[in-house]
Amino acid sequence: MAATRNTKGSSKTAGRSTGKGLGKGLGKGLDALISSEGIPEDTKDSVVELKINDISPNEGQPRKNFDEEALKELSDSIKENGVIQPIIVQKKGSGYRIVAGERRWRASRLAGLKVIPAIVRELTDQQTMEQALIENLQREDLNPLEEAYAMQNLLKTHKMSQEQLAKKLGKPRATIANTVRLINIDESLQDFIRNGDLSAGHAKALLSLKDPEDQRKAADVIIAKDMTVRQAEEYVKRYVYDLEHPEEVKRPKKVIDPQFQLSAKEVEIKLKKSLGSRVKLKVSDTQTGKGKIVIDYKSYEDLDRLIEVLGG
Fold first, then answer.
1. Which class for 54: exposed (0-12), middle (13-18), buried (19 or more C-beta within 10 A)?
2. Rounded-to-integer distance, Cα 283 and Cα 252, Å
3. Which domain holds residue 59?
């Protein structure tokens, strides 16, 4: 039987084990409509302890990828401090379905918890999808493609207009339109967006190229030369111009050998396994092999570990 506890104002004052600043990237008007959880407040909310095995994830959850290392860190924090911010669920059959907080639920299971603090709300499927999307956007947990597919799902499944969705999310309509366009990029490039090799800005520039093969060729160059979004936009603009004016092209364009791109990725994978950190190989000149290696680290302790590994 679920035990209820008094949490008046808890959604506004309780700390979190993880998460970023509130309101960043969202319209100012949204801050007045959402709680620290990133979804609309309900003054009737109260927290109950639910059995973790009675709760299931939301298949329509916008976020598809959960970083295993970050999940383990959150699990360790939960073992030490407990779940500070309740998850939000809706009653579904004999159990409950997660509306917001799947990452905390996963980490709690990993930590061996049997129960988890939760707020139960009565919501329609559309409201569930809206609130899950708002929460993830608020926390900046989604990659650009997850945002795009989640927005497209709301637009099509629930027959919302872009204006209606923009109002719900506190974003300009143009932002909704530009984000949804990302799902049209060639499928072979979508993993580059998911893992951060291409940003949403890079992808939007590539969408100026209608032929998937041209998108792939241009993306290879953008990644190999580690172009900024502005540089990518200029490069694609020249690429489009050359396609439309072939008679003006003086010499054949240099195209990155796909085999070279593959070998660079293999090197990154080997270095990641050796160092235990994400590694990015950035080649500026494919003729001479000139470039740089970028190694990610998450803390001063992680940096000390890398220095020891590299120095050993």
1. middle
2. 21
3. 3-138
Q: What is the largest CA-CA distance in the chain?
A: 77
Residue ending a domain, among 138, 171, 199, is 138
- Are 226 and 281 spatial neighbours (Cβ–Cβ below 8 Å)? no
Cβ partners under 8 Å of residue 228, min gap 6? none
The number of C-alpha atoms within 13 Å of 28 and in the hemisphere containing its C-beta is 0
**CA 67 – CA 296 distance, rounded (Å):** 15
Burial class from Cβ neighbours inside 10 Å (0-12, 13-18, 19+) for residue 34 reads buried
List alpha helices for 65-101, DSSP H: 68-81
pLDDT for res 74: 86
Chain centre to alpha carbon of residue 146:
6
Catalytic-residue membership of 187: no
Residues 6+ apart with CB under 8 A from 11: 35, 36, 37, 41, 45, 85, 86, 119
Asked if the structure places residue 191 within a domain, the reply is: yes
Among residues 37, 102, 135, 146, the one annotated as catalytic is 102
Q: How many domains does the chain have?
A: 3
Q: Please enumerate in sequence order all residues whose Cβ is within 8 A of that of 184, keeping only pairs 6 or more positions apart, or say none.
A: 207
47 within 8 A of 5, measured Cβ to Cβ: yes
Under a CB-based contact definition with an 8 Å cutoff, are residues 179 and 144 in contact?
Answer: yes
Q: Are residues 32 and 119 in the same domain?
A: yes
pLDDT by 10-residue block (mean), the chain, 312 residues: 40 34 33 39 72 87 71 88 88 88 89 93 79 66 81 82 84 90 90 88 93 92 91 93 78 54 73 83 73 85 84 67
